[in-house]
Write a structure and sequence with these properties.
The chain is α/β, with parallel strands linked by helices. The chain has 21 helices and twelve strands. Bound molecules: adenosine-5'-diphosphate. One of its GO terms (cellular component) is mitochondrial inner membrane.
């Protein structure tokens, strides 16, 4: 485990050095192109507000000049009026700027979220075997949020203050070039420290996001398995595990806070010392008659503006670097091209016969070293039922996953009507396959939506007909809102048998050529059991059926029974044939009523 730790440190180093700052920044700029009109209008408003703040010190200078020398009431009135107008225009421009940039940011992040979600959901099943749900959700929620702030507020602020800094420095030169030179000598010191700080924050930012993701994963797993956690009274244990993750992110946050504290403190100190120095030199100039009090006042106000702007820009720099860290994680996902593409490839012009053949299939899970299937050959013919039985872990579900093309085999060929399924358009192919799982999950939504899931514009008659055949119509009619009853959180609660019948109705409505069925192992009450069985029998009629069987009645009726053991087909035949071999696996499974796994 020491070696493991070393390895993870090494990987982290590698990852850090991979963050491509300018590449990511460019890409963010390109991605925000649709927001360009908003951003440009925002920029115009921003220039107005920046210019207005540039004009303020000049007029204050004039007022001081009136007080200290001329005493001209007209100049006082005019300057005050000018200041009022400048403030009004400036505030108006500021609120327009804030509105436009925030809007642009919201739009940008909405688009990024959609794109990222699209990229995630299109990944191969193997990707989800390897990714933690919480981490993916975190990328969607919090990484995109970090980007929103940067693309909008931070960039607009950076532009605003940059304009202010450049404009003010020009005005400073005009007002008093000697003092300006003194001031400019201090700027490189600030710039260098900002760069150091930015680098540190960029790395810390990425780490913070990663640990946050880990924390979400833990919470997600515990909350979604809360019954198990409670049944084993492990609440305290998970509170501790979660607490450890939170503590880790807290420690990083603390480092970030220390870095931020030191940085802003020192920037502040340097800036203030600079002002003291300038006041001192400027006061001497006034005493020597080199400049006037009004002129010095303007100069000091300009200096304050520059100092504030500089402090702000450097803190934005940190935020910006944090966003680069977040964008790196987002782009990594967006760039991941699934190896099993959803579209492209052949679409049959005639309805398929529906014959599936596996020819000498060998398969290893991308996440796992050892071979799960070895030299599997089988043929599923139209109108037949093929039952897979065998000990748990033997490879039955894996065969189903390969037929769905959730994974591609290491070697061997899977064909539909003689055509390699890799040549077939995946969306079309999956459209002709129906799948009913052991523990069907329903989506939050109405019963009607759950039945018509996967079929656009299904008519109500078809939905009801499917529900009737699935023995679901009766219980649905008993709900207050019937087919519009909401399932899921705060909706009607369905029993296991009812959920299965909804799933069967869903498959019946799809009316697939090929049906993959994972029989439920969990026992239902006798009545429910009968209704489900009857519905499944109707569903299996006139299709190519592959069933992972747990019931004796299913295997007795199957055309062919395949015993899958340790990744191979160890017995093959009808129930009557196989049950004769008293030393076979099948005989023993039947003796235990198949229900053991
Ligand atoms: P069965 O359906 O017969 O119980 P499975 O096909 O589920 O068997 O499992 C066969 C083997 O593949 C088991 O050793 C199991 O641990 C492994 N396995 C199943 N699913 C995955 C997966 N997503 N990633 C890695 N290994 C898996």
């Amino acid at each position: 485990s020491d070696a493991e730790a070393m390895d993870s440190v090494h990987n982290k180093k590698k990852r850090e050095s991979r963050i491509n700052t300018s590449g990511n920044a460019k890409r963010l700029a390109v991605l925000s192109k649709p927001e360009l009109p908003l951003i440009l209008c925002g920029m115009i408003a921003l220039i107005f507000s920046s210019l207005s703040s540039l004009a303020i010190p000049a007029f204050f200078g004039q007022i001081v000049e009136v007080l200290s020398t001329t005493g001209d009431i007209n100049t006082l009135n005019n300057s005050t009026m000018a200041l009022v107008i400048i403030f009004v225009v400036g505030s108006l421009a500021t609120s327009i700027r804030a509105y436009l940039f925030t809007l642009a940011g919201q739009r940008f992040v909405a688009r990024m979220r959609n794109e990222l979600f699209g990229a995630i959901i299109k990944q191969d099943v193997s990707f989800f075997d390897q990714s933690r749900t919480g981490e993916l959700i975190n990328r969607l929620a919090s990484d995109t949020q970090v980007l929103q702030n940067t693309v909008t507020v931070n960039i607009s602020m950076a532009v605003r203050y940059t304009i202010q800094i450049i404009g003010t420095i020009i005005l400073l030169f005009v007002t008093n070039w000697r003092l300006t030179l003194v001031m400019l000598a201090i700027i490189p010191v600030l710039a260098i420290s900002a760069v150091f700080y930015g680098k540190k924050v960029k790395l810390l930012g990425k780490e913070v996001q990663e640990i946050l993701a880990k924390t979400s994963t833990t919470a997600e797993q515990v909350i979604s398995n809360v019954r198990t956690v409670k049944a084993f009274a492990k609440e305290e244990k998970f509170v501790a595990i979660y607490g450890k993750d939170v503590h880790e992110s807290y420690l990083l946050g603390k480092t970030l806070a220390i870095a931020g504290g030191i940085f802003s403190g020192s920037v502040f100190l340097i800036a203030q010392l600079a002002i003291v120095l300038i006041v001192y030199i400027g006061a001497k100039q006034v005493l020597n008659g080199q400049t006037t009090t009004g002129n010095l006042t303007s100069f000091l106000l300009y200096t304050l503006t520059v100092a504030m702007a500089l402090a702000f820009v450097s803190s934005l720099f940190g935020d910006f670097m944090q966003a680069i860290g977040a964008s790196d994680r987002i782009f990594e996902l967006m760039d991941k091209i699934p190896s099993i593409p959803m579209s492209g490839g052949q679409v049959f012009s005639n309805p398929p016969v529906g014959e599936i053949e596996l020819n000498d299939i060998t398969f290893t899970y991308p996440t796992k070293g050892s071979q799960v299937l070895k030299n599997i050959s089988l043929k599923l013919q139209t109108g037949t039922i093929t039952a897979l039985v065998g000990p748990s872990g033997g490879g039955k579900s894996t065969i189903v996953s390969l037929i769905e093309r959730f994974y591609d085999p290491d070697s061997g060929l899977i064909t539909l009507d003689g055509v390699d399924i890799k040549q077939i358009d995946l969306k079309w192919y999956r459209g002709i396959i129906g799948y009913v799982s052991q523990e069907p999950l329903l989506f939050a939504g109405s019963i009607r939506e759950n039945i018509s899931f996967g079929i656009e514009n299904a008519s109500m008659e078809d939905i009801v007909a499917a529900a009737e055949k699935a023995n679901a119509h009766q219980f649905i009619e008993q709900f207050e809102n019937k087919y519009d009853s909401y399932v899921g959180e705060r909706g009607v609660i369905l029993s296991g048998g009812q959920r299965q019948r909804i799933a069967i109705a869903r498959a019946l409505l799809l009316n697939p050529k090929i049906l993959l069925l994972d029989e439920a192992t969990s026992a239902l009450d006798a009545e429910s059991e009968y209704l489900v069985k009857e519905a499944i029998d109707r569903l299996m009629r006139d299709r190519t059926v592959l069933v992972i069987a747990h019931r004796l009645s299913t295997v007795v009726n199957a055309t062919t029974v395949l015993v899958i053991n340790q990744g191979t087909i160890s017995e093959r035949g009808t129930h009557d044939e196989l049950v004769k071999n008293e030393s076979g696996i099948y005989y023993n499974l039947v003796k235990r009523q198949l229900g053991s796994n």
